[in-house]
Design brief:
Layout: E1 2-6, E2 9-20, E3 23-32, E4 37-48, E5 61-72, E6 77-100, E7 103-122, E8 125-135
Length: 137
């Protein structure tokens, strides 16, 4: 739980994880305790590593989505990421660079999925649930 005072507005943020077999749930509760409108951007990041990152191509969405799916052919699983709220999606690979005898080598690390949404809260509570499920393809 985090209390934060931002420009005279008190914001309460609670984050709770739930782990089950083949399922991860992350619950966010954002509460504006002040009488003034609180405007900000909420985002949550999910990082997944794949053997063949070039096979992961999801459309970037600025219109809002509630669900997307990723097929991991190497591990023969389908991963679904869902949210109760419509959120925008940015997705990109993350690389590291290492110095080798031959020079600098670029190495794939993971795929970053960044879900984000504009917030406008006036003395109210917003609940956001992000679920990641794993199942056979």
């Amino acid at each position: 739980m985090l209390f934060r005072s931002v420009l005279g507005k008190t914001i309460l943020l609670k984050k709770r994880y739930k782990f089950r077999k083949n399922l991860i749930e992350v619950n966010y509760r954002i509460e504006n305790k002040s009488k003034n409108v609180f405007q900000s951007v909420f985002s949550t990041e999910i990082n997944l590593s794949f053997k063949y990152p070039e096979s992961i191509k999801l459309p970037v969405s600025n219109n809002g989505i509630r669900e997307t799916g990723i097929l991991d052919k190497e591990n023969k699983v389908f991963i679904t990421i869902q949210s109760l709220e419509k959120m925008n999606l940015w997705q990109f690979p993350v690389y590291s660079y290492t110095k080798e005898e031959e020079g600098i080598e670029k190495k794939y690390q993971f795929q970053c999925f960044l879900f984000h949404s504009n917030l406008s809260l006036k003395n109210e509570i917003l609940l956001i649930l992000v679920t990641m499920k794993r199942r056979p393809p």
